[in-house]
Amino acid sequence: MLRACGIVKSYPAPSGGAIRVLAGVDLEVKAGQLVVVTGVSGSGKSTLLNVAGLLEEPDAGEVWFGAERVSAWSRAARSRARGRFIGFVFQSFLLLPSLTALENVLEAARYTGGREPATRARALELLEELGVLERKDHYPPQLSGGEQQRVAYCRAVLKNPPILLADEPTGNLDDANGAVILERLRGCARAGAAVVVVSHRPEAARGADAVWSLRTGALEPG
Ligand SMILES: Nc1ncnc2c1ncn2[C@@H]1O[C@H](COP(=O)(O)OP(=O)(O)OP(=O)(O)O)[C@@H](O)[C@H]1O
Ligand SMILES: [Mg+2]
Predict the structure, then answer these.
(1) How many Cβ atoms sit within 10 Å of the Cβ of residue 59?
(2) How does pLDDT run across 132-160, given as a tens digit for each residue?
(3) pTM assigned to the model
(4) Cβ of 44 below 6 Å from ligand 1
(5) Where are the domains of the chain?
(6) In this prediction, what percent of the chain has a pLDDT beyond 90?
(7) How far does the centroid of ligand 2 lie from the alpha carbon of residue 42, in Å?
(8) Residue nearest to atom 24 of ligand 1 (CA)
(9) How do strand 210-215 and strand 34-38 relate by DSSP bridges?
(10) Ligand 1 near 38 CB (within 6 A)
(11) Confidence band (pLDDT; 50, 70, 90) for 116?
(12) CA-nearest residue, atom 18 of ligand 1
């Protein structure tokens, strides 16, 4: 379902030259699989997810969604593909500060039925399942980090995307809430999604179909 092939990505270093973050990374996640990526801080995990999720362009390499080589598509087509295929839980949540928690979740369906009662009912159901329904009318600055993280999770899964990319989705959560999110991500994979989880929690690797560690720009079995 998701394939990243030969991904190379460097950033300009402030002092000149470049920092090579990804040096030819291959990552494949089939529908129904959950893959965990670990690695020390700064090893490039978020960069890899951003490239796989079409948020950043690699210097070299290809990204495929199913049989489509989406990395070759135009910017506008990539943006549409992102909306259709990808649910993203960002490390820093990226909730829109001018929207309430519920409105942020509904953003996932902005162009596809966000106003339909069924979509709204699903959003409310997710917020309830994640224990943040009472905060639905709060704006992100009025939410704790863990609450924002749970709202961001609800937004990512609202449309049942076939590819789910979760960047430290439990980083701000206590053990109990973290376990809930990890179990739900496993459930998304069982339901047929291709799921990538970046996490340092040893529990995240439980039940994963593959665990990779990002080290010096490459994925090693981890
Ligand atoms: N926009 C950017 N410009 C320059 N350097 C960047 C940029 N984004 C990331 N980097 C550098 O790329 C490296 C990898 O960053 P990345 O965020 O992918 O790491 P990470 O593995 O997700 O780390 P963490 O566990 O702390 O979230 C870091 O050294 C970072 O400083
Ligand atoms: Mg990161």
Answers:
(1) 14
(2) 999 999 999 999 999 999 999 999 999 99
(3) 0.95
(4) yes
(5) 2-13+20-221
(6) 86
(7) 7
(8) 41
(9) parallel
(10) no
(11) confident
(12) 44
